[in-house]
Specification:
It is elongated and about 40 Å long. By secondary structure, it is of the alpha+beta class. Helices cover 29% and strands 21% of the residues. The protein has a three-stranded antiparallel sheet with strand order 1-2-3, covered by helices on one side. The protein starts with 17 loop residues before the first strand and ends in an 8-residue tail after the last strand.
C-alpha cells in the first residue's frame, strides 16, 4: 500500500488563518552528532489564540528530547522524542484544547550518519 503526500505551496484560503512553519535542528555538540539532523514541518488551520505557539512548542519538545540522551541509539532517541510530543498533545486534549483537532498536520524527519547510502 503506497501513500501519497501532498504539499501545497499556496493553499487556497477560505478566509481562515493558516499557520505553517518549518524547523531545522542540527547537532550543536559532538555528542549530539550521533542523533543527526531533525526536520519538522507543521501546518495549523483555523488557529485560535490558544494555539498560536503550538507548532513552535511541539518542535522544541522534539528537539530537546531527540538530543537529550547521548548514550541511546539515534532511533531510540527519535522514538522517545515522538512519544514526548504525543504526551504533550494528549495533555492539550486533557485541558479541553480541542480546536487543533482536524486542523493540524505535522511531519518529523530524523536523518543521521547511519542512514546515508554508500555507493
Amino acid at each position: 500500500m503506497s501513500k501519497a503526500l501532498e504539499f501545497q505551496f499556496n493553499p487556497h484560503s477560505k478566509k481562515t488563518e493558516t499557520r505553517a512553519d518549518t524547523f531545522c535542528f542540527f547537532p550543536e555538540t559532538i555528542k549530539e552528532k550521533k542523533s543527526g539532523f531533525l526536520y519538522c514541518l507543521g501546518e495549523l488551520k483555523d488557529s485560535s489564540a490558544q494555539n498560536q505557539d503550538l507548532l513552535y512548542v511541539l518542535a522544541e519538545i522534539l528537539k530537546k528530547r531527540n538530543y537529550k540522551n547521548y548514550d541511546n541509539a539515534a532511533t531510540d532517541s527519535f522514538q522517545q522524542a515522538l512519544n514526548k510530543a504525543n504526551e504533550f498533545l494528549a495533555k492539550e486534549l486533557q485541558k479541553n484544547n480541542l480546536s487543533w483537532l482536524g486542523n493540524f498536520n505535522f511531519a518529523v524527519i530524523s536523518l543521521n550518519s547511519n542512514c546515508w547510502l554508500k555507493v
